[in-house]
């Protein structure tokens, strides 16, 4: 169903809550379960800002890799703690290509942060307390006016515990690995399916078991298992929830 049709549906006064009330929407869940796709679509339909918090952890990881601050799982936390103070991250929207762009220290890093090398290193960086503190503050600042859809792991639990709508997304590891594998192949990178599945299972474990802000469902989050849902069906479920919450 095209967006304009959905907009027409949601613009029906009987279905729609108060459209001027701008909500804070937190979408958390496992790696590669399609959070960002549906979060972007939802932000577009609602005219909200979309923020990919994972891109921020990926950017700090890329910074560590490019500045010899990490080797395997070891991160030079003493140096990073100093250098991170001046690190800037922001997002722009490339309307011509309908694409969000991540910038780190005013350099476009959107493609570089999506490589498997960054995916393999990001868990070691995202478990560091001062990294999370810095990024959570930035995320809270980005969403202080509401009208935001943010996806990640701790958005409903730590970043916006007051969010009006919290979603916890999930799908089986096999389904997620297949989607991620297809995405990587589409960019022309060579990769084995097993390698992608191993990375997803490893990140699931680390995300759910790290000491600080582990991935967990907020008590008041709605579970959305999208293993067998199309993008359109997911979007429709979310729009129905938004309409309920805006009343
Ligand atoms: O959403 P993603 O896969 O691009 O996120 C990359 C990594 O960043 C992921 O392995 C976990 C971490 N992350 C996090 O710890 N907290 C967030 N709010 C978002 C991502």
Précis, in short:
It contains ten helices and ten strands. It is α/β, with parallel strands linked by helices.
Walk across the major sheet and give the strand order. Answer: 2-8-1-9-10
Described by the principal axes of the CA atoms, the overall outline is globular
Average pLDDT figure: 90
CATH architecture: 3-Layer(aba) Sandwich
What's the CATH class label?
Alpha Beta
Oligomer state of the chains in this structure = single chain
The fraction of residues in strands falls at 15-25%
CATH fold node name = Rossmann fold
- Report helical residue fraction: 40-55%
Major sheet: 5 strands, parallel
Note the run of SSEs as H and E: HEHEHEEHEEEHHEHEHHEH
End-to-end separation in angstroms reads 25 Å
Look at the structure and name the CATH superfamily. Answer: P-loop containing nucleotide triphosphate hydrolases
Weakly predicted, low-confidence segments: 1-16
Number of spatially distinct domains? 1
Q: How many β-strands, per DSSP?
A: 10
Query: How does the helix and strand content classify structurally?
Result: alpha/beta
Number of helices in the DSSP assignment? 10
> What is the C-alpha radius of gyration, as a whole number of Å?
18 Å
Cofactors and ligands = 2'-deoxycytidine-5'-monophosphate
Structure overview:
It is a single chain. The chain is of the alpha/beta class and 247 residues long. The protein has one domain: P-loop containing nucleotide triphosphate hydrolases (Rossmann fold), CATH 3.40.50. Helix content is 48%, strand content 17%. It has ten helices and ten strands. The chain has helices at residues 3-11, 35-46, 53-66, 77-83, 116-126, 129-142, 155-159, 173-186, 193-209, 231-245, and strands at 24-29, 49-52, 70-71, 74-75, 89-94, 99-104, 107-108, 148-152, 165-170, 222-225. A five-stranded parallel sheet has the order 2-8-1-9-10. The protein has a three-stranded antiparallel sheet with strand order 5-6-7, covered by helices on one side. A two-stranded antiparallel ribbon has the order 3-4. A hairpin with a 4-residue loop joins strand 5 (89-94) and strand 6. The radius of gyration is 18 Å and the shape is globular. The relative contact order is 0.21. 2'-deoxycytidine-5'-monophosphate is lined by residues 31, 53-54, 57-58, 122-123, 126, 152-155, 203, 207. 2'-deoxycytidine-5'-monophosphate binds at residues 31, 53-54, 57-58, 122-123, 126, 152-155, 203, 207.
